[in-house]
Amino acid sequence: MKKKLWLLLGFSILIGIILTGCQSGDSKSSGSGDSDEITIRYWNNVAAGRTYLPILIDEFEKENPRIKVDLNNVNVESSEAEYQAAISDDNLPDIFSTDSFTINELVELNLVRELNDVFPKEVRAEYTEGVFDEGNASVNGDVYLFPVYKGGTYYMFYNKNVLADLGIERVPETWADMKEISTEIYELSNGSSYGLIFGGQSGWLVRAVTQLMSTELSPESGYDYENGDYKYATEGYIETMKYMKDLLENNSLSPSSLETDSTVARELFIAGQATFLLDGNWTGQLLHEDGFNDWGVVKLPTKNPDGQQYGEFRLVSNDGLYVSQNTEHFDEVKIFLEFLQENMYAEILKDGEPLIAKDAAEIDVELPFEEVNDISDIFLDMSIPVPNPVVLNPDTQDVRLELQKNAPDTDIGAILMGYLTGQIDDLEGTLQKFSDDYNEVFSEAIENNENVSREDFQFPNWTPYEPYTSEDYEELDR
Questions:
Q1: Does 1.20.1250.20 match the CATH number of domain 154-312+390-478?
Q2: Could you identify which of 32, 391, 451, 471 might form a hypothetical disulfide with 331, taking C-beta atoms 3.0 to 4.6 angstroms apart as the criterion?
């Protein structure tokens, strides 16, 4: 990712030269009136898509025998290189999903086509509120991302079998509950089962869960929307990390958390070696696929009985589909996308993923497990729209990319794991240094961009735990 923007800029120059040449030559027409068979190339970068996309494509091709869809399930590990090569060769597929680039990057470099015709106002109204907000599926008021999912959040899953075998009838809601019940589990099982586990070697998971838990005590943890700077040495982060270490030292957190990734942690959870698992919304689907259905799901525990946490409601590129700016088959692509609008979401729900871009409760389909609705409800309660600088000044995206390129090598997840393993003694000092280093790079990125100011990143009318609306943006009068 560090050299991605510069590579893309070079590729965009090459693309511009190619396009200039193409405009002077003959172009191949493939309107919907052509009786010849048309093949649409579709690159899929979403693991779950390997299950439901072949089903959808088979049904589509039966209804539209003139249009074929060539599905290529891109290897996630090598996908960035594949997309860069495709951009360089002016050979992006007609339709693609990717987590290698942001929507703003793809639009800025004129690599993707707007989809306003596919998503007129009345169609957008069928989707979860906020999906088509600026910076989510839209840029500068135009739709560019076909939204499939609506983001994600993190949960606590519990093993019903372990609780039943040990005669425990309650699930933790607070930090105190978690320690008390986990201690009981360890003692009653003679150490064969722990209370809590998570995949500590999955840095993205540790980083996200730690931030989510910290927002209860310090809603500005991670990024302070009011003042426009990054904050990591907050009470929320400090107390969350100290709590995790206390659980580890008292046999309430499985020591396997220090050495396993999310996949292995899930396997240990299924095996009953841990009773509570911290993981993302897709975990329910994976548990079901593994044949394990004796589980439930709740919010992450809070320090206080009435504690409130929140996560950012924001789509990323891998939450939807793009159409290449240079597709020669847009008429056929549009037919396929309209088919997906009507059929894709039900198929995804059948597969057990609840966080589709539409309201799952409005789709009549038999769910594979009842907790699908629980996962959806928790997401809607936890995830809220927050201020997005790109909405008011698109150039702030360049600052974000510069920050991403030059950010400190460590992150909040690595700090927690270092603290748990004893490699970090001065927790507060380490967090403060991380904040200082991060903000230094952030300030330099702002100063290096003449079209951006610190004010662009400040939202003095932000109220924690409440959705930030279009009216709030208008109130700023910038």
A1: no
A2: 32
% of the chain surpassing 70 pLDDT: 92
* Neighbour count for residue 202 (Cβ, 10 Å): 20
Using CA of residue 379, residue 459, residue 469, residue 403, what is the dihedral sign? negative
Helix (H, G, I), strand (E, B) or coil at 352: coil
| pLDDT for 296 beyond 80 | yes
Which has the higher per-residue pLDDT, 270 or 17?
270
Which pLDDT score, from 0 to 100, does residue 189 have? 98
User: Any idea what the Cα angle at residue 75 is, between residues 81 and 150, rounded to 5°?
Assistant: 100
* Rg of the chain over all Cα atoms, to the nearest angstrom: 24
Residues in the chain: 478
pLDDT attached to residue 477 = 80
Closest CA to 205 of 265, 159, 256: 265
pTM of the model: 0.85
CA distances from 23 to 16, 27, 28, 88 (A): 11, 8, 11, 18
How many Cβ atoms are within 10 Å of 7's Cβ, its own excluded? 13
23-32, 161-170, 242-251, 361-370: lowest mean pLDDT where?
Answer: 23-32
Beta bridge partners of 321: 146
- What is the homologous superfamily of the domain 4-16+31-151+315-368 according to CATH? Periplasmic binding protein-like II (3.40.190.10)
Structural element, H or E, at residue 250: none
253 CB neighbour count, 10 Å cutoff: 27
Under 8 Å between Cβ of 127 and 121: no
Token look-up 């086509």 returns 113
First-residue to last-residue Cα distance in the chain: 32
The ranges of the chain annotated as CATH 3.40.190.10 are: 4-16+31-151+315-368, 154-312+390-478
Instruction: Please state the φ and ψ torsions of residue 381, each to the nearest 5 degrees.
Output: -80, -35
How far, in Å, are 32, 104, 201, 266, 292 from residue 120 at the CA level?
A: 21, 21, 43, 41, 41
Q: What is the pLDDT of residues 354-405, one digit of tens each?
A: 899 998 878 889 999 989 989 999 999 999 999 999 888 988 988 988 998 8
Mean pLDDT over each residue of the chain, to the nearest integer: 91
Written as six digits, the tokens of 335 are 């037919």
Burial category of 392 from C-beta neighbours within 10 Å (exposed 0-12, middle 13-18, buried 19 and up): middle
The helix or strand, by DSSP H or E, that contains position 229, with its residue range, turns out to be: strand 229-231
Choose from 14-28, 42-56, 125-139, 190-204 the range with maximum mean pLDDT: 190-204
